[in-house]
Design goal:
homohexamer, alpha/beta, UDP-N-acetylmuramoyl-L-alanine:D-glutamate ligase, nine-stranded mixed β-sheet, four-stranded mixed β-sheet, 10 helices, about 25% strand, kinase (chains A, B, C, D, E, F), transferase (chains A, B, C, D, E, F), Carb_kinase_PfkB-like (chains A, B, C, D, E, F), Sugar kinase (chains A, B, C, D, E, F)
Chain lengths: ~325, ~325, ~325, ~325, ~325, ~325
C-alpha cells in the first residue's frame, strides 16, 4: 500500500485532568491534534505509511509538535515552519449531562496563513496513493482553501483516491467564502464520501431525513451530483449523555446498503477525534478489505477511540480486529 | 436582585485523587467548602451578589480560603479572622458499592468559637435581600447557634426572605443543645423550607411516609406550625450505588403540588455539595422564575453539580438552562 | 485465629494513570502485588495475623517493597534478600471494550531463583494455622515448585489448613514441568479448593460444563480424586465490558450446594487482584463464619476490590459486612 | 491611600514543571501574568486598593483569568470582554548556563485589539491616586498606545502620580510606531521613572555608561527633558547564571543619590516578574516611606519575588520588612 | 542493642510541592512527622529496634499514620486510638531569603488529650534500653507532661538511658505550666543532653555566650545541677539563607571537649527534622561508637537529612558512614 | 555529513520526582536512555542524521521506547524486536552530599541476548560515516561483544571514523570475558579515543597520574599501542558535591595539547548522560570544526546537559554556540 497523505492544521490541545475546569486546577495536560492529523496518526498506528502536510511554529512548541508526530513514525518532511504561533485549543471535559467545552485560539495561527506557494505538492505527493481532506481546512482561510484545492487537483491527476469528510462547522468560515460553494468545488475531486445525511443536505441543499431509505436516496443524489464519488459511509452516534454513547455505521456503495450493529460505549473516556478514528479505519480498511468489512473495521476503530485520552486513536490493527472477533468483554491481555 | 447572605463555616477539604485512599498516595488535592458557602458560591456563579459571613484562621490557610472565595466574586468583607485553625475535612471518594468516607477536624476550629459579638449584623445585612441557613451551623456550638439566631432575627426585621435547609446531622450537636428545640426556634424566622419528609418529621416529631400524599400533608402541618414558611421544596435522590444516582424534586407552595422528572446521573463525579447546589438553584430561581420553574432550575443545577469535583457548583445560568432546554446528550460546545 | 501464611512472588506494578498508555505520559504510578501477597494483605486488613514468604531484591526497590508490605502490619521476617532484581509488571488499564494489557519482566527475578534451601520452613510455619498457595508459583521455576511443595508438605504435617487457587496460566510454565502433573501433586496437600469448572477440568482432564449441575459433579469428582479437599468455592464473573462486571459465587462443601446473588459493579476501578480478594475473604470467612456466610463475605470482598486501585483489597471487615447488610447505595459515611 | 490603577495585557503563562522542556512532559502548569498586572497584584498583596484595566476573552479561559485576579482582592470592574482569545506565553525554565525561553502567542489577542472607545477612563480612574504604565503596552498595537495615552492624560489632569517603567522590547513594536517617539510622548505624562541607564539612553538617544556618575548625569538630563519626572529608580541585577543573581538598587531624586547593598539570590526559583515586583514595592513604598526606604523596600520585594513561582510577587509588607530587618537566614516562621 | 523508645505526637504534615504557597496550587503532599517520631524512624532506618508511643485518631487518617510508621519496621503496639482528630501542620517551603512558614492545627488533637492512664508504661518499656524525649511533648498539655514524666520515671527505675532534647518553643506551653520548672523536673530523669547554650541558659536561667569556652562552662554547670546528665552534645547550624546551611557539632562529656568540622549543605532540600536526625544519629552512635565518633555520625546524619523531603531521615548506617569516609562529592552509586 | 551510527542497549529509566526516594512516593517518571543512544539522540538534536541499532521488547514498552527514539527524528529501521523484556534502571536522585543511586534490571534484557546474526551490518551501515561505541556494550554479554566487534570491523573496512568511549564498569562484565583484553581488541578498530588517564591506564595497564604532562604521555603511549587512534579527548569533572560540578576538557591530537576553562555548574539538575553529551558534542564538532573548537563545543554541550532532566542532551547547536559566545548569565531568550 502506498503513502496516505493528510493535510491540515496541527493544534495544541490543553485541558485539565479528568472533569476539572480550568478554574479548578493550574495543572493541565497537552496533546496535539487536528482532524486530518488524527486520521493520519491512526493510519500510521495501523502500520500505514503516512505523510502529514502542515505548517507549525518555528519555536519550541512547533518542535514539540513535530516530535509528537514523528513518534508515531509519520513522514514530516513536508511540514513547513512559520514565524506565527501554533494554534491552540482549550478543552474542559464534561461528564453525564454536562457537555465538554472547547475554546479556540487558531484564527491567526501558523497554519491559517498558509498559501499555495508554501507547499511543493509535486514533491509532497510523490509516493502518494490516497489523500484525505475534511471540511475544517477550507473553513480556516482563503489560503488554506486554495492550497488544499491545489493538492486535491494534483492528487486526482495522479490517480490517487481521495476521501472527503466535509463536516460543516458554522463557527469557522470567517474569511468570506461561501461554505456550500467551497465544499462543492472540493468534492468534485473526491472518491469516497465520509458523512451522513446532514453533510449531504449541506452540500446539496436538500432536506433528507435520517432513516435508511433517505440515506440511500441522499447518497444516490450525491453520487449523481459528484460522479467521482463511489461510496458513502456514515457513522451514527447515539448519545445517552456525555459519558455513554453507542456507535454504528451504514454505507451505500452504489450497489449495496449495509449497516453494522451498535457498539455500546458505556463509559466514554474521550470522544474527541472519534470521527477521525472512523475515517482512518475506513481508509485503512478499504485498502485491505471489502466495503462492509472496512466499515465494520472503521466502526470498531471508532468505538475503541472513545477509550483513549487525547485526539488520536492509538489502537493497532490487531486490537481492532480483536473487537470484531467478539472480544468485547475486556478480558485482560497478558 | 439584592444581596444574598450566607453564614457558616468554611472548611478545607482534602482528598486523594480519583478513588484512592490516603494510604495509597501522599499526593492529595484540596478545595474549600461548607454547606452555606457552597450555596453562596453557586449563586455567585449564577450572577448573584452574594456575601458570605464566617470566621477563618489568621494564617496562610485562612488567606488561601479567602482567596478561594474571592475568586468567585463574592463579598468577603464580613469574614472575621481568628487565631484558631480553619476546620478541615478529609474525604476518601468511594465508587460503586463502596461509600465515600469523611473524617472531620472541626470541633475547635476558627468558626466553632464564634460568638454574636464577632459579627456586626447591622453592617453585614445592609444590602441583604435574602438570607440562607442550614442545620449544620446551629449544630456546631452554642456561639454558632446564638450568632445565627441574632442574624436571622435581624434579617426578618428587615423583611428579608429566609431559606432554611434544616438538615439534622446526628454526629454534630455535641455542645448540649436539643436539636429539635434549636431548629424549631430558628425555623420561626424562615420563609422557605428546603427539605423533605425526614426533615419535617425531625422538627415536628411526626412520622409521615415518603409518598407524595404524605409529603403534602407533612408540608401543610409544617406550615401550620411555622406560619412564616410559605413553600416547601424537596429534592429526591435515588441511588443505585455511589456512582449512579437519579435526581428529581417536588414542592408544595400552599396551593400547588408539583414534581419534576428524574435526571439520570449515570457516572457521578462528585456528590458532595449537590444538595447545596439544589438550594442555590432554588434561591436564584425563586427570584427569577415562578415556583415550578425555580424547582426545575434547582433540580438541573443539582444534577449538574454531580459532574464537578469539589464542594461547589460551577455551572452558569446558561448551562443550567441548556439542560432544561433538553440538551442532555453531552454534545460538544465550541 | 493463628497465623495465615502466604508464599509467592512480590512484583512491582507500574502503570500510567487512568486509561493512558505508556506512550501518552511519562508519569506513572507503582504499587506492589503478586497473587499470594494480595491474599495476605487483604487478610491482614481484615485483622488477621499474616506472614508472607518471598524473595526480594537487595536494593532500594526491594526495600520499598518490604516497606509496602510492612505498612499493612504483615510479618516479613521470612522474606529473603537476593542480588537479582525484583520482578516488574507493566499495566495499561483499558476501558469499555478495550482490554487492559500486561507485560511482565519476571523470568529472571529475585523470586524466580528461589530454591528450597533458601526458606527455613520449620521457622516460617511456627505459628502457622493456614497456608495459601496458587497456580502461579509452581509455574515460575523448578525451584519455586520445589520450595512450595516442601512448605505444603510441612504445613499438612503440622495439621494446617491449606487453600489452593490452582489457576492455570499458559503464558508461564516455561521451565519444563507438566502443569497438570505439578498441580495434581500440590493439590494432594490441599483442603480448600478455590476455583471453578475450568480449573477442575484442567487438573482432572475432564470436560464439565458451566451449569450448576456440572459444577457439583465436577466438585464431587475432584474430591474423589483429592480426598483431602473438603470444599470447593467458585467465583463467577459476568463482564459486559472492561468497565462493567457482575460478581457472584457458588460452593459445594460435600453436602450443600449454595450460590449468592450477583453484585453489580457498574463502574470498575481496577479488576486486578479481585480473585485474590475473593480468596482472602474466603480464608478469613471460613475461620469466622459458616461456609455460606464465608462465601457471601468473600463475594462482597471481591466486589469491593473492584473499587480500589492497585492489586490489593483495602476493605476492612466492617466495610465488607456493611455491604452484606445491604448498604450498597453508596451513602456517605461520616 | 487611594486606588492604584494598572493597565495592560493579561497573559496566560504555560510551562512544564521544574526545568523540563515541553518535549519532555505533557503535564504543564499555568499562571496568569503581564507586567502591569504583576505590579498591581503585588501592591494588592501589600494591602493596596488596586484596579487593573484590561481586555480578556469571553470564554472559560477569560473567566479563569478574572477569577485569578479577583482572588487577590483586586478591582476587576473595568476589565472588558472580547471575542478574541486571551494572549498566551509558553515558558521553558532554564537553569545555570541554560537560559529560560519564552514563546508568545499574543499578536492577535483580546487585548491587542483594544481601542480607546473600549475603556471609560473617567469611570476607571474615579478613585485613582496613582497610575502605572510600562513600555510593553504601547509596543503592542496602535490601539493599545492610544488607549494608554488617553488614560495617562486624564490621570495627570486629575493630579494622579504616574510611574513609568519604559522598558524597550525590540521583539514587539510591530505595528509601525517609532518606539522612541512613542515612549517620549508617554513619558511627558509621568512623574516617577523606573529604569536605568539603558532605558534613559533609549529615550534620550544618549550613550551614558553604567557607573553611578553616569547614572546621575543621565537622570538629570532625563529630568531636564521631562520636567514632570521627579525621581529615577534603577534596579541592578548581577547574574552569575540563570540560577544565581544579586539584586541592588540606586536612585536620584533631584537632590540625593543613594544606593542599596546587594541581596544575594543564591538559588533563583523564578525570575519572571522580578522587575515588576520592584516597581510594585516602589509604588507602595513611596506612599508609605521616604525615598530611600521605599527603594530598600522595593529591592527586598524584588529579591523575595525570585523565590516564588509564577509572574507575581506573593510577599506581604510584613515579609518584606522582615528582610529589611535583617532576617535573611531563612529561619522557620511558626 | 535493646529497644529504643520514643514518645510524642504524630502530626500529619501537608505542603504544596517545591516552593509553592497554598494559594498557588490545590495539589499538596503529605508526610507524617513529629520530633520524637522522627528520631525513632531514623534509628529504625539505622537498624535499631524502636517503639513509638503515641495517640492517633481512630479513622482513616490515623490508620494511614500507623501504616506510615509500620512501613519503617517500627513497633506500634503501644500506640493508642482516640476519637479526636490527628494533629496537622501546614508547611510552605521557603527559598533563599524567604523563610519556610508553618501553621499548626494541634491544640485539641488526639495526642493533646493524653493522660497517664492511657499508657501502660510497664508494658511499653518492657524491652526498653533507651528512652528519648523532647521539649515539645511537655509543652502540649498537662496530660502530656504527666504521662511523659511517668514514663521517664519508670525508665530510670529500669536503668534505661534517657536522652533529652529540651528545646523550648515559646509558641506552645499554653496550658499553664511554667516551662522552666517543667523542663527542670524532666531533666532530672535524663542522662544525655542534646542541646546548646540556648537550651542550657533556658533551664538554668544563665546567660552564657556561644563560644566554646562558654559552652564548656555551661555544660559543667548543667551537669552540676543535673547530676544524672553525663554528656552534652550541641549541633551548630550556620545559615547563609533558607537554601544554604552549614552543620557542625561539639560536645562535652565531663572530660573532653571535641568539635567536628562544618559540613556544607549548599542546596538544602528540606530542613525540617534535621535536629531530630542529629539526635537519632547520636542515640544510635553512642550505642555503637565512642563519644566523638558518635557525634561525627550524628553530624553526618543531620547533614544527610537536609537532602530528603519530609520530616524523617531516610539514610542508612552505610550511607552515613560513607559520608564520614569522605564520599561527599556525590559520585553515583550503582 | 553522512550518517552517524550508534549501537547499544535502550534502557527504561524510572525515578521519583526531585530528590525523593521510591519509598516516599508511588508516582514516578520514566525516560529512555542508554549511553550510546544518548550520544545518538544528542547528535540528532544537533541536526545530524543518526541511526541507532538495538534490540527492544515486542510489547507496549518496546513500542514506547521506539516512539521515544523516533520523536528525535532518528532512524530506527535497524532496531530489532525480541520476546524478552526491555532493560530497566531505577534511579534515586541525590543532592549535595547524598549521591544518586541506581539499581539495574538488565541482565536478561532484550538487548543482552543479542547475537551477531540479529544485525544485518551491511544494511545497517549503508549510509554510515561514523560509528560510536562505548565500554558498556561489550561488558553486557558475549553476544553483545561479538556483535559490536563485527560492526566495528565492517565500519573500518568501509573507512568510517570510529569513536570509542571505553569506560570500564566493574559492576558489569559478568559473562566471562577479560575486560582489558576485550577493550583492547575493540580499540584496534577505533580512531578517536574519548577518555582520560583512568581509561588509558585500564587498557594499557599503566599508572599515569592526572596532571597534564602525564595525560600527554599516556595519550602518546596509547597511540603507539593503537596506531589507528588519532586523537584523545578527556572531559574533567570537579565535584564539590552532587549538586555542584565544574566541567573542563583537554586533548592531545598527536601534535597539540589544549585545554578549556572550567564551566561552573552551580545547580546540577541531572548529571546522568553528561559524558554522553560530551561525546556527542565531540562527534558533531569534529565534523564541523577544528579539534580545539570541537572540544570546546563538546564541553559546552556537556555543561548544558547538566541542566536537562533525563539521560539525553536536548540542546541545539545554536544553544551550545551561544554558551561558547559567552552567554552564560542565563538572560531570558524571547
Amino acid at each position: 500500500m502506498g503513502q496516505i497523505v493528510t493535510f491540515g492544521e496541527v493544534l495544541m490541545r490543553i485541558s485539565p485532568r479528568g472533569n476539572k475546569k480550568f478554574i479548578q486546577s493550574n495543572i493541565v495536560e497537552f496533546y496535539f491534534g487536528g482532524t486530518e492529523l488524527n486520521v493520519g496518526i491512526s493510519i500510521s498506528n495501523f502500520g500505514g505509511d503516512v505523510k502529514h502536510i502542515s505548517v507549525v511554529s518555528e519555536d519550541f512548541i512547533g518542535e514539540t509538535a513535530l516530535a509528537y508526530i514523528r513518534q508515531f513514525g509519520m513522514d514530516t518532511s513536508s511540514i513547513v515552519l512559520s514565524k506565527r504561533p501554533l494554534g491552540v485549543y482549550f478543552l474542559e471535559v464534561g461528564a453525564v449531562i454536562r457537555p465538554s467545552m472547547i475554546s479556540y485560539n487558531r484564527s491567526h495561527s501558523a497554519f491559517s496563513e498558509i498559501v499555495p506557494a508554501k507547499v511543493n505538492w509535486e514533491k509532497a505527493l510523490k509516493k502518494g496513493e490516497w489523500m484525505h481532506w475534511t471540511g475544517i481546512t477550507p473553513a480556516l482561510s482563503q489560503g488554506a482553501f486554495d492550497t488544499l484545492k491545489e493538492g486535491l487537483k494534483l492528487a486526482r491527476e495522479k490517480g490517487m483516491a481521495v476521501s472527503a469528510d466535509p463536516t460543516y462547522r458554522s463557527d469557522l468560515w470567517k474569511y468570506g467564502q461561501d461554505p456550500k460553494a467551497a465544499l462543492t468545488e472540493l468534492l468534485h475531486y473526491s472518491t469516497i464520501f465520509i458523512g451522513g445525511v446532514n453533510e449531504i443536505n449541506e452540500v446539496l441543499g436538500t432536506e433528507f431525513g435520517y432513516g435508511n431509505d433517505d440515506f440511500i436516496k441522499a447518497s444516490k443524489q450525491l453520487m449523481d451530483t459528484f460522479p467521482t464519488i463511489e461510496k458513502v459511509f456514515d457513522k451514527i452516534r447515539t448519545s445517552l449523555n456525555s459519558s455513554w454513547h453507542k456507535i454504528r455505521a451504514r454505507m451505500w456503495n452504489g450497489v449495496d446498503f449495509r449497516e453494522t450493529k451498535d457498539l455500546d460505549i458505556t463509559h466514554v473516556v474521550d470522544r474527541i477525534g472519534t470521527g477521525d478514528a472512523f475515517a482512518a479505519g475506513l481508509i485503512y480498511g478499504l485498502q485491505q478489505y471489502d466495503d462492509y468489512k472496512a466499515m465494520e473495521f472503521a466502526s470498531a476503530a471508532c468505538a475503541l477511540k472513545h477509550t483513549y485520552e487525547g485526539d488520536v486513536n492509538l489502537a493497532t490493527v490487531k486490537e481492532v480486529n480483536s473487537i470484531l472477533a467478539g472480544n468485547i468483554t475486556g478480558r485482560l491481555v497478558r
